[in-house]
Design brief:
heterodimer; A: 385 residues; mainly alpha; Alpha-Beta Plaits; 3 domains; two-stranded antiparallel ribbon; globular; B: 209 residues; 9 helices
């Protein structure tokens, strides 16, 4: 069979024994929920912890056996996004009795450090030696090194494997079968970069995390500042509007991850890491039939007509794997820069999946497990806290 | 010398305060380094004008302005609104090609060139923004007692701060990336909306965002 005639359905599936063997390195990381639950000694926590750990190993094994990435990643990614408010908000109620923090509480370093602020805090930190996000600084330092390490390894893959919020607009983008809005002007792809530039400059002069205070859609599903002034009251109106518009309505209408693709400044920052890390998505132009299905499927507008000529995804690619799964000719693949396109795409995919999956487990596994525990607790005791 | 050193010591603050306006504007124009130098010169000219006005004010009213907090809020709010409107104009206007001007009258040509004054206006607004370094200079000028001394202090203060602005025209080195113009325009709109909101709230009741 020639390479041209090879279709996605014909693509070789990995042998079960080989997949089992290759899934072994994931077990220590996937076991974190059950280990965490065992240390708590709470039977109600051990059950979901055990179930989540087993699920994570099975999902990775299925990814290897079937050769499919996106459908499994997407299910986990959406689960994580839904789990975050179930985990975070009760935790804040346990600690402070509310998820509306006053300025005094946030400046007393009681807010959790949010990784999405990294871009905004860098310039003031360099220029003035001040971290403008009023969170727990030690936590910020830990986040910083985890973020740098993960970004160097998987680039903007962070946005489809590590982000705790992106699953929300992925969820809404998958609800409809066909998009209502089919064309989005190319220039909007540059808006996240503009927001990044603006908030970095404005945060440097105001010494406030401007994005968090005014524009973050995910304040709706986490914590926010209590309405103690006209400005904070206005912000409280903006947050649900941005959430409903960018995370719910537009993804529903376009079937794209609009918040991630056309708004998130942290995603824009991550795009630069795509330039310097070793993985990328490539199109094998010998196999490509120019059906443009990948362009339609890509949830972040990271493939355009130029990609079909150059064989490369744009720098905004989040390595979600949707185009790889969708390509009927098997022309899309994960690829290691500097190697020939036809050389072992399965090895490149595997080498990408390990760090990406470890990142997901590292951020998400315990959060999902804790969220399930809190729901079980709600059912059995009537309280999540 | 006192003004120059004061400017030199506080120049990074002045740059940080002007950068949110100047960087998106320079990017949105998409000009080369030489053209950016001209734009920067206009901006700095406007700033100098603003500073000299402050020098005049410092000589005329001395420390009275510093004591009147309400006027400060009005002045800052006004400059914020002015800055935001100029940025919005800059972001939304379409650059006209130079050719074809020969069929227009002199008055029309002059009118069509008015956008060239936008950086001057922005510089003036930026110069009038009351910021901590400027207040330090104002205090120094108010205590000098003479008009010449007051103007000289602000002029030397301007010189000291200007050194930090000199690398900015190098943004013109990225003219080969036309997409940066789109980023610059979007960023200019975002910064303008921020200043507009801040300015309106300050004018309305002294609320700082």
């Amino acid at each position: 069979m020639t390479a041209q005639a090879l279709t996605r359905e014909d693509a070789p599936r990995m042998a079960t024994w080989k997949a089992l063997l290759l899934a072994l390195p994931i077990i220590p990381v996937a076991a974190s929920p059950v280990m965490s639950a065992l240390s708590s000694g709470d039977l109600l926590a051990i059950i979901p912890g055990f179930a989540i750990s087993i699920l994570l190993i099975v999902v990775f094994f299925r990814m290897l056996v079937t050769g499919r990435t996106h459908r499994y990643r997407s299910a986990l990614f959406i689960s994580l996004a839904i789990a975050v408010p179930l985990h975070l908000i009760p935790q804040l109620f346990e600690l402070y009795g509310t998820n509306m923090l006053t300025p005094e509480m946030t400046y007393a370093a009681k807010a959790r450090f949010c990784p999405m602020t990294v871009g905004a805090v860098l310039l003031p930190a360099v220029l003035k030696g001040v971290v403008v996000f009023p969170g727990v600084i030690a936590e910020g330092v830990v986040w910083f090194f985890m973020w740098i390490g993960a970004s160097l390894v998987i680039g903007r893959g962070w946005c489809s494997w590590g982000c705790v919020f992106g699953g929300w607009d992925e969820f809404f983008s998958r609800l409809r079968k066909k998009p209502v809005i089919k064309h989005v002007d190319r220039k909007w792809r540059f808006l996240p970069f503009a927001i990044l530039l603006a908030i970095v400059l404005l945060s440097a002069i105001t010494f406030h995390p401007i994005y968090c205070e005014w524009l973050c859609p995910f304040k709706v599903v986490s914590e926010f500042e209590a309405p103690t002034s006209l400005a904070t009251t206005i912000a409280l109106v903006i947050f649900p509007l941005t959430f409903l518009g960018l995370v719910v309505a537009l993804p529903l209408l376009t079937k794209k991850r609009i918040q991630c693709a056309l708004w998130c400044p942290f995603g824009a920052l991550q795009s630069f890491f795509n330039k310097i890390n070793i993985f990328e998505l490539r199109i094998d132009l010998d196999k490509c039939s120019q059906c443009k299905r990948c362009l339609r499927e890509c949830p972040t507008f990271s493939l355009d007509e130029g990609s079909l000529v150059s064989g490369k995804a744009l720098m905004s690619c989040t390595r979600c794997g949707q185009c790889v799964d969708a390509c009927p000719k098997g022309a899309m693949s994960y690829h290691i820069k500097g190697t020939r396109i036809s050389v072992s795409p399965n090895t490149a995919r595997l080498l990408f999946l390990y760090p990406a999956y470890i990142l997901f487990c590292g951020f998400g596994a315990v959060v999902v497990s804790d969220a399930v525990w809190r729901v079980l607790r709600l059912i059995t005791t009537g309280s999540m806290i | 010398m006192h003004g120059f050193l004061l400017g030199l010591a506080n120049g990074t603050s002045c740059l940080a305060l002007c950068a949110p306006v100047l960087i998106p504007f320079l990017l949105s124009e998409g000009d080369n380094v030489r053209q950016n130098l001209v734009t920067l010169a206009k901006f700095l000219g406007g700033r100098l004008l603003g500073y000299l006005l402050f020098g005049l004010l410092a000589w005329a009213v001395g420390g009275l302005l510093l004591a009147a907090g309400g006027y400060q809020a009005l002045l800052i709010g006004g400059t914020y609104v002015g800055l935001s409107l100029l940025l919005l104009v800059a972001a939304f206007r379409k650059k006209k090609p130079a050719h074809g001007a020969c069929v227009l009258s002199d008055a029309q040509v002059r009118f069509r060139r008015w956008p060239a004054l936008i950086p001057l206006g922005m510089g003036l607004m930026a110069g009038l923004k009351v910021c901590p370094p400027l207040l330090l200079a104002f205090t120094g000028a108010a205590s000098s007692g003479t008009l010449g001394g007051s103007l000289l202090l602000f002029a030397t203060f301007f010189l000291g701060t200007t050194l930090y602005f000199l690398p900015l025209p190098l943004l013109g080195a990225f003219t080969r990336m036309p997409d940066l113009r789109i980023v610059g325009r979007f960023a200019a709109v975002i910064v303008a909306l921020y200043y507009l909101g801040s300015g309106i709230l300050l004018l309305a009741g002294g609320v700082q965002l």
